[in-house]
Specification:
By secondary structure, the protein is of the alpha/beta class. The protein has 9 helices and 10 strands. It has a 6-stranded parallel sheet with strand order 7-6-5-9-8-10, sandwiched between helices. It starts with 5 loop residues before the first strand and ends with a helix.
Length: 244
């Protein structure tokens, strides 16, 4: 599928960085060498750009073009500053509602979550620079364009974002099965941020330790878990129910 948010080739990516483009993620062929690559490598470190070193087969799947060992995703959106966004929401007089995604890596899950977030009045989504799903054409499509309506903040560390939320009077609730509390036991009428974990392992243990509350969904089937985007929708609509 044609990806209008994709560029390839070492020189093209270098120029995009110099031009101030928002690079969401870069895929680089393992073992790539040379002077031009070293120039790119230095830029990536100085700009702290999310980078993955992958086999050439991965790059060949991303594009049929002559990629020279480098493919980059340019974000179709501009990311927001967490502190500025948080203060703006608090000063608006509305009851803050944020979503924190701890290493959610599938772009379609990400897009579905953004779509639900837009429908439920989420004020902002917080993701980590490394390990999170990039904002790609698939994200835009799956979100039905909602990605352009919901502010998204990229942070260096999820834990720092949680500490900042808590210091701002926003209680942070983790969606996890590692608790006896159910979602219906949590008061969502006060300022809240909901943490959703990665598709395979859930919320990381270091993040679980610093949450204000943990809550799980009651499960009656044999599978024992929901897709992260579906679970997120259930949590967000419980917030809507309580606040309505």
């Amino acid at each position: 599928m044609k990806n209008e948010y994709q560029i390839f080739g070492i020189r093209a990516v270098i120029e995009a960085i110099h031009a101030g483009k928002t690079i969401d993620k870069i895929f680089i062929q393992k073992g790539l060498q040379g002077g031009l690559f070293q120039e790119l490598h230095t830029l990536l470190k100085s700009h702290q750009i999310n980078t993955s070193y992958v086999p050439v087969e991965k790059l060949n799947r991303l594009t049929k073009k002559n990629h020279q060992g480098v493919v980059a995703n340019i974000s179709p959106i501009e990311f927001h500053d967490l502190e500025n966004l948080t203060m703006k929401v608090i000063e608006s007089g509305e009851t803050p509602l944020f979503l924190i995604l701890d290493q959610v890596s599938d772009v379609r899950n990400f897009g579905a979550i953004i779509r639900t977030a837009e429908c439920t009045g989420v004020h902002g989504i917080i993701i980590q620079k490394n390990g999170s799903a990039p904002v790609t054409a698939d994200t835009v499509k799956t979100s039905a364009g909602a990605v352009f309506n919901v502010p998204i903040c990229k942070v260096d560390h999820i834990k720092d974002a949680i500490f900042y939320m808590q210091a701002s009077g926003i209680e942070v609730v983790g969606a996890t099965e590692k608790t006896d509390n159910e979602i219906y036991d949590v008061n969502f009428t006060t300022p809240a941020a909901i943490v959703m974990g990665a598709e395979d392992v859930g919320i990381s243990s270091s993040v679980l330790k610093i949450l204000n509350h943990k809550a799980k969904l009651p499960m009656f089937g044999s599978i024992g878990s929901l897709n992260v985007s579906v679970a997120c929708a259930v949590f967000l609509y419980e917030v809507v129910r309580q606040r309505k």
